[in-house]
Design a protein that fits this description.
6% strand; two-stranded antiparallel sheet; single chain
Length: 106
């Protein structure tokens, strides 16, 4: 196995408020992609990817629809850069139905 050296770049994460490992590259082109690259850690970005899956499934978003894309971008910016991010209304974590949430299916 070949030896190599890897430099780990750190960023002060806007979401988590800590110095953590940075993304390798902007997640997408444009101003928001660059802002995320400069201010969001790899860990927070992975959290966003999980959150985006929840949003897409909960709302049944069609990502080919520009309105759905705009909604998801707004949610992404709120999730990563605001303290006001919340789970979708009516969302119940998998396995939590019947524990005060949505009734379990029979």
């Amino acid at each position: 196995m070949a030896r190599f050296e890897k430099t780990i770049v750190m960023v002060h994460c806007a979401k988590l408020g800590q110095d953590l490992e940075a993304l390798d590259r902007p997640p997408f082109p444009g101003e928001l992609g660059q802002r995320i690259y400069n201010n969001v850690s790899r860990q927070a970005w992975e959290m966003w990817q999980q959150q985006s899956t929840i949003l897409i499934n909960h709302y049944g978003l069609n990502m080919a629809d520009p309105r759905a894309q705009e909604f998801l971008f707004e949610q992404m910016e709120e999730f990563l850069f605001s303290d006001e991010a919340q789970m979708p209304e009516g969302w119940v974590a998998p396995g939590q139905a019947g524990k005060g949430g949505t009734p379990a299916r029979k």
